[in-house]
């Protein structure tokens, strides 16, 4: 009986401690009045500041969506540019409240770094870019090539796996930052450049003569990119996760930035729950019940931010592909709000 009572006391203490930790980040964010969002140092289409410090990109819009949900103001975000090497430390230390920086969700990162990934906001895969003058049309023709890549990323590991699996030799030329890597490739220090396929299209825009380079067809890895928060932060984890899901559900239901006010009058129960006209789903995550309405009104649904930042109407001209909704042959699928 004593052992049972002791176990109950320990369990209750642990539960109280977890509750205190889980509520910490959202409470702190509300108190300071803004979200600290770990961002890329500059990747076109995903996270990049202009010369006036104005940030744009797919990841940036998700950060702004969080601010819209919490504060009803998408501008209450402080973007913290982080290198691949520094990104996890910044989140672990509390310098960033959330990391939304084209980061691959892997088992080791999810279990050993004290992080929780909240979902996938971009399904990607690693590829290769080469100069057209090499006359190469496949990554399987890269035997003996020198390959530029960035240190501290899954890219290095995938590169080694791919060449070993295909019994090919290569020379790795690694750099600490993405800018150094791109400049090295552009100057001819290596035959090929490898990173996530989305990154290849973005970085190609920085090259001296972008049209002189092609992205090879092979995708050699799975790179599910998504936001992450700290372990033990359940309430903030729920907020970040459900803001993404709300944007997906909004696209699926046809709720857009332009028509969201009109959709408030909808008789569709799914739309009513999404926009807070029915139920109290905001209270469950520490927000107002119109949290998703705020997100869509200020930022838009997932399809809108995809098209604007990386889609076929953008500079990157990337097709939806795997990032299409599940109803259109893609992998983007959100649980229902109910």
What are the SSEs and their pairings?
Elements: H1 2-32, E1 35-40, E2 48-49, E3 55-56, H2 58-71, E4 77-82, H3 87-93, E5 98-99, H4 107-112, E6 115-117, E7 122-124, E8 126-131, E9 145-150, H5 154-165, E10 170-175, H6 178-186, E11 192-196, H7 197-204, E12 213-215, E13 223-225, E14 228-230, H8 234-253, H9 260-263, H10 269-275, H11 291-298, H12 302-309
Parallel strand pairs: 1-4, 1-5, 9-10, 9-11
Antiparallel strand pairs: 2-3, 6-14, 7-13, 8-11, 8-12
Structure characterization notes:
This protein has 338 residues and is an alpha/beta fold. The chain has twelve helices and 14 strands. The protein has a five-stranded mixed beta sheet with strand order 10-9-11-8-12, sandwiched between helices. Helix 2 packs across helix 8 (234-253). The longest helix is centred in the N-terminal third of the chain and has 31 residues, at 2-32. The two termini are 41 Å apart. Pfam families: SBP_bac_3 (PF00497). This is Amino acid ABC transporter substrate-binding protein, PAAT family (TC 3.A.1.3.-). It comes from Chelatococcus sambhunathii. Keywords: Signal, Transport.
